[in-house]
Amino acid sequence: MLLKFRFFLLLSLLSFGVYAQQTPERIQIQFEDLTIPEVLQKFKQQSSYQLYFLPQWFGDETISGNFEDITPEAFLSEVLKETPITFYRYNEQIFVLNRNNQIYDALPNGFFGRSQDSLPGAGQPVTERSGRAPVPVFVNQEELASKPAQVETVRIGKQDASTQGSTFVLSGYVRERESGRPIADLVILDRTNGAGSATDENGYYELRLPAGLNVLEARSVGKESTVKQVIIYNNGTFDWFIEEGVEQLEEVIVQAEQERNVQAVIAGTEIINAEESKDIPLVLGERNLFDVAASLPGISRAGEGAVGLNVRGGRTDQNMFLLNEAVVYNPTHFFGIFQALNPFVTQQVEIYKGVIPVEFGGRLSSVFDISTKDGSTDKIKGEGSIGPITANLALELPVRKGKSSLVVGGRGAYSDWVLRALDDEQLANSTASFYDVVATYTDRLNENNRLKATGYYSNDRFSLTADSTFTYSNRAASVVWDHKFSERNNATFSLANSRYAFDIGYDANSNTNFNLGYSVEETELKGFNRFRINESHRLTFGLAGKFYRVSPGTLNPAGSNSDVVPQELAREQGIEGGVFISDDWDVTDRLSINAGVRLSVFAATGPSEQKVYAPGQPRNEGTVIDTLNYGSGETIKTYGGPEVRFSTRYLITPEFSVKAGFSNMYQYIHTLSNTTTVSPIDTWKLSDLNIRPQTSQQVTLGFFRNLEEGALELSVEGFYKWAQDVLDFKTGAQILLNDAIETEVIQGDGKAYGVEFLLKKTQGRLNGWLGYTYSRSLIRYDSQFPEERINDGEFFPSNYDRPHDVSLIANYKFTKRYSASMNFSYQTGRPITYPIGQFNFNNSDYVFYSDRNAFRIPDYIRLDLGINIEGNHKKNKLAHSFWTISVYNVLGRNNPYSLFFVSENGEVKALQSSIFAIPVPSITYNFKF
């Protein structure tokens, strides 16, 4: 009926003939807090003009205005500029309003393939004859009406004098309908012409569409497929709100990963969804995202049960773990066996191991960007598990329906029974426990503002001997505010605080009882913008500031009978800052570049006491020539420089791309450890007058290919990395409670290189991935002083050098409820220093050792198997259940964790330490409601 009304009205008006040009009338009108229909009605009453429109075209928004000596055309343009309504002046007294499209009194020039220049004003709306005319947009009404009634029709933009061309850009954000959180890696397909786009981490998308009717479909992992009919008249925006879905999970994740694998500009990036760890058999049935990460090429552990990860030949302290922008210094429990993050609260981990985006700084090797879930804003939901060692529970609690929610997760361990069950008298009285809690509040304040606040705490306490108790904890808190300034400009502001601490309590019922403590704390304020200049250029720019405070150690007597003398090392303080900018530039349809620079700076600040050593002499107590005292806030030493981040991607075909990158990094904080793997008593040290920051440069080149319509993903990537001023300890160094730590450490050069291969299958009953890495990690400590030189100043393998690393993850789904999984790992044995001879001196036997890391422990081989049993899929049930039955180390291989040497009866013996030397079965019950 509406179309018939418009058509009849237009024919009636055209029957009066075209009006004659006269001097335009000037009008005067004033109004306040009126709706647009009310403003148009007032315009009609105060003038001699007639307006034809439908009031339902407008909303309830009100406007105000004061216009003097203005033409009717200028007045209508101003009133309607924020609406999709256009207008057409038929004659001196009549204006016809239309939605989105212009009304034409002639077809465009050359519409039928011949010139119409002889027609006055041909092809232009009467109101726009002074400029170029937009091309009319025609919509097939029969095709529009043939779509299902539930498919919404959306009209975007309106035609005006600036509308040129036959294609336009549609952009916007995609969010969950319940929680309002952005959906990343969602694919929007244009069914009309086959084009497509994927959302970024903020849910933002851009898509170029031909003018007129387009049928768009939005797909995302775990979301319902949503279809819209979009009639586009000009560049415009449209935000999608997507419902949760279940049935399309496997199909959608393939499409999303396919787009990202080949088309992403930055190489060396991996994303692990929390669900990916569900079907992988891991130790004691506990989900662990870091174990999943270690199965990917370029990422490994120094040993079984090790806390740290080594990324592309880097040290464990060269990785940054972020939980909603807050740093977590030790993200594991019980020496790395369990992750310290509740898996049911974690949404995903995004790993940058190649070129790290400019908004991140402070580490050389990688960033693990961990994000928590946004809770349901509609109803209470929960998820948990009960296993042989731990129990987990996570709840999603609506706070304001449709706006805000709270996610709370808690986990605890009850592992003492395992230690008591072991056939080892020394462990019979041992205890080991841990817990972690996390809470995330998310509030979608309005269309332009979103707030996310997170609090996290973890604690480990264990005693493996009768006289010592070890305790360590992590604390992290952050507030992240996402603000939308405009359709092209979005910003994120964050404030985060983190603290890591450990305590060693010694109680042997003697006069030597003590408590030893250590802590490191940091606070960071960061803000950055994402600004879309046009469809080819997207800028990211901002700044960040971080304040460090380190308590290197305190020693206090435990009990009134202790003779231990209290000791406290002076605190360290430092300020780190960064200013950054990058441009994501689509040079052509095939070539894209992401280029940026980060200006990094660090200042060690007082109060502090710094020793000055004689130049040209080794650092020791005898070479101290001066002691400098710095007051509170006084700058001790400043370091820094520019960090270049460059990545490029070229699409050879839509399914095959080549990527290259270069980056250089600064790191101002170091770990001090004289163990092979990261332990709870590792300490962190800031750069100062005597310890320089670590620096690195890395180049990468990779090829990425999708096969079998995206069912198979194949990638080969090579890297070469240089590092300077890498910190290590001298032989026999004393790390704890040393106020001259610079005399116990040395700094040298490192290099790492390798090739990473990944074959991933994402469709079908059988899926998983095969990863292989060949890499070397070498280090050199050279000096003119023998005590600061290792292996004659030549390059030698680092403690985490493992040339060959193979991982095979496979899952086979028998039915919708039953599946089996396998995890196979092989690694070259890590380097070790062996005794190679012995001698007798003064009737005592001594041994002398090989060059550092000249030998290797046996290769590491492990096979894990698991069976997954899901509960029935009835819709109306209290909770959905999921059982995991797994066996860790099925082969029972006695993989060495470390080797050490003892002297017994004049004979040197080698002893091997292992974590899990036998098959370890487990059964875990998971539930979700």
TrEMBL record:
Pfam families: CarbopepD_reg_2, Plug, TonB_dep_Rec_b-barrel. Residues 285-362 form the TonB-dependent receptor plug domain. It is found in: Cell outer membrane. Residues 1-20 form the signal peptide. Residues 429-889 form the TonB-dependent receptor-like beta-barrel domain. Keywords: Cell outer membrane, Membrane, Receptor, Signal, TonB box, Transmembrane, Transmembrane beta strand, Transport. PROSITE patterns: TONB_DEPENDENT_REC_3. It is a multi-pass membrane protein. Belongs to the TonB-dependent receptor family. This is TonB-dependent receptor.
